[in-house]
Structures are given as C-alpha cells and as structure tokens.
C-alpha cells in the first residue's frame, strides 16, 4: 500500500471501487500529465446523499457530502493510475456545485468538506485551486457534485 | 472530406459555420495541444432552442438541445483546426449546464444527447469525461449550454 | 512597472493584493505553463458586491461586479508570476457564474464586464474563450464569481 493510501487507512478510509459513470461517458481522460475527472456524486456504498442546502440539509451535512465526492474523485484517480494512487502529483483544481436554494451563501463551507479532507489526506499534494457555486439542481437530487483536475505521472 | 465528417454526413449532419461568440470573447483558445472551446448554445440554423427542464420542456427535447450544442462544439473544433476535423484527437471533457427548475434530476439524460452523439460520430475519440449540472438560468433562455476541452494536433 | 500594469495604470486601475481564499484551498495552481486560478469574488477594497440579477441588481451593475472579479483574477496571476504580470501570455478561459433569478437571460452582458476589461487592458493577450451561466446562489450572496485559466511563462 502506498503512502497516500496508508494515510487514508489511518484516517479510517478505504477507497471504494471507482464508480461507473451514470451515463454514456468515461470517468476520466488524460492529456499529457493532466487528468480530467468527471463530476463525482456523493455516493458511499449504496447511499446517495440527497438534499438541498438552505432547505432540507444543514451545511455540516453538505460538507459530509462534499467529502464523499472527494473520496470518489480519489478513487477515480487511483483507477486512472492503474491502482497506484502515489502517482498522483497534485490536486490541481476542484469545481464544486452545491444543490441549494436561491438565498444560500455558505457554498465555501460545504466544499471545505472536500478541501479539508484532501489537505489532510494528501498534504501539500492536496492543496488545490477551486470554485464553489450553487447549482439550481443536481442529478438525482444529490446535495453536491464535484469535478476535478489532477496532475499525475 | 475527412473520416469524421464522412461519418457525420452518413448520420445526416453537416457541420454549420462555427457560430460567432455572443459577446466580446473568442470561440476557442489553444494551449499546446489542448483546445478550450467556449460554451456553445443550442442553435441550429436560425432556431435557438429555449426552455426550462422540469417546467416547459421534456427531457428528450433537452437531449436534442444538448446534441445541438455538441454539433456547434465540433464546428468550433473544425474551425480551430483550419477546417480539418480529423486533427481532433480526443474529446477530453464536457461541462453541461441544464436550464432547469430546482427539483429536476435528469441532467445526465439531457447531456447524454451530446455524449451519445459524440460517441456515435467519433468512436473512441468521442469518449470524454464530463459533468452535468443545472444552471439557475442560461443566456437568452436556452435549455442547455455546453463547453468543451479537446485534444487536437 | 511592466507593460500590462502601465496600461492598467492608464485605465486608473491598481491591482490589489491578491485576495486570500475564503477557505482551505490555494489561489492558483500551475501545471506546465497553464495556471488555474480559483473562482474570484467581486470584492474591491472592503466592498463585497452582493445582489441577484433579475431581482435587486441591474445588468450594468452586474457587469461592474464581473469587472471586479477580473481585476482580482489578474491580481492572482501577478502573484503567481512573482509580481511580474508581463509573464502572462494569454487569458485562456473564463467561466462566469451569475447569481440570478430563474428567468434572467443577460448573462453574456454581465460577464462582458470582465471580458471587455481584459480586452482593453491586455490587448490580444486578453482574448479568451469563456462560458457564462447562472448559479442558483453564490458565496455570501455575491452577484458574480469568475474562475480563469491562464497561460504564463
């Protein structure tokens, strides 16, 4: 087990099998050393975390959903690296979409659920640029969707 | 006519002239072999496909709008490749924005209108990563807007 | 002072200190010559420009907010270039998110506040690809958030 997965294990996290896309596309595409990973949903095990921030979900729950998206992003990176997550050089960019009402303003705190997790798990390699915005709605009613760009070797 | 346009022709599709931007920007910018194409609207001929999913437009119509966006993306790629679409190596990433109500959840099925078309027209070169989310609203009330990243030679 | 900042000065604009991220991430990440800059908010000095287009803010005000985002994007590019903005080769891509009601359709005119400014300030280097969409809501209620991709040396 590599250094990143060892650290994840210490945090109590085992990466799931990389989720298959919900439709006719692929989980990630590599161009040079840049890996573009499809938007990931907050699904852990069989549980899809649905909800709308500002209506029926609290910010802290939204942050948990964002963390679930980040775990799935890492699962996709691992799959793209033939199972060796240590080939991840850097998380480059996250775009986080929050399913919220029109007057919700805590998108940064929600997406921190992903950012804090990546920072803790990956150290300097986890420091990324990002955007956090609200979507009017998300697939299947999920609370958060996050896509990512990664540098790999 | 190259292989990709021959296939499009068999599918009954002729790429339009690349649409001009709606404002003060350019249709695409190339960095190395990566081409970033501006968000394309579902305009075919003079018809701009407007509507809001979950309110006044069905998912199947939304998928048609997404296909129209994808056709315009290819028209932009062709223009960026000096008219030779066969210089397209790979569709890398699509981000699809669906104009929908707050409780709509079939964004993947809408954006499949683009993904299915690109897969059929381009084969392996059409397999891409993607995100599908809802926008609260879109320019001029269009139903879908899709931006894309492409690898070209 | 380099050519770009000289031009900005002629336009009456002094780049602010690059704003710190609102949460646990970094302002930008470089991969090769491509710089990914985090979503910037319309904050100039101590004023955060809040509002919702189609409800309590006019399109022209939204364009001013977009310009403020663009100024902050340039401040981040300058910081990533060790203070030398002339190392900016090209604005590659903007993604502009407009905080609007569900029936608002002038997103392009809002984001033109950023595009027109970059074109005037940077000339050919400011010509970029872009997308303009509405977000259901934005952090702290701001009117606009814009992220950018830049080519630097």
How does the SSE layout of this entry go?
The structure is a homotrimer of 153-residue chains.
Chain A: H1 3-10, E1 28-31, E2 34-40, E3 43-44, E4 47-48, H2 59-80, E5 88-99, H3 107-122, E6 129-135, E7 144-152
Parallel strand pairs in A: 5-6
Antiparallel strand pairs in A: 1-2, 2-7, 3-4, 5-7
Helix pairs in contact in A: 2-3
Give a description of the structure.
By secondary structure, chain A is α+β, with helices and mostly antiparallel strands. Chain A has one domain: 60s Ribosomal Protein L30, Chain: A, CATH 3.30.1330.40. Helix content of chain A is 30%, strand content 28%. Chain A is built from three helices and seven strands. In chain A, the strands form two sheets. Chain A has a five-stranded mixed sheet with strand order 1-2-7-5-6. A two-stranded antiparallel sheet of chain A has the order 3-4. In chain A, helix 3 links the parallel strand 5 and strand 6. In chain A, helix 2 packs across helix 3. Chain A is globular and about 40 Å long. The two termini of chain A are 18 Å apart. The mean pLDDT of chain A is 96. At the A-B interface, strand 1 and strand 2 of A face strand 5, helix 3 and strand 6 of B.
């Amino acid at each position: 087990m590599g250094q990143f997965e060892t650290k994840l294990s210490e945090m109590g996290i085992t990466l799931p099998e990389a989720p298959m896309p919900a439709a006719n596309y692929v989980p990630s595409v590599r161009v040079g050393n840049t890996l573009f990973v499809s938007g990931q949903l907050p699904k852990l095990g069989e549980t899809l975390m649905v909800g709308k921030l500002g209506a029926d979900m609290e910010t802290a729950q939204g942050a948990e959903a964002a963390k679930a998206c980040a775990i799935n992003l890492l699962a996709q990176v691992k799959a793209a690296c033939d199972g060796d997550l240590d080939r991840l050089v850097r998380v480059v960019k996250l775009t986080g979409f929050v399913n919220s009402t029109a007057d919700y303003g805590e998108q940064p705190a929600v997406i921190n659920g992903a950012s804090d997790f990546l920072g803790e798990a990956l150290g300097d390699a986890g420091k990324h640029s990002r955007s956090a915005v609200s979507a009017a709605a998300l697939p299947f009613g999920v609370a958060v969707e996050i896509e990512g760009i990664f540098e790999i070797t």
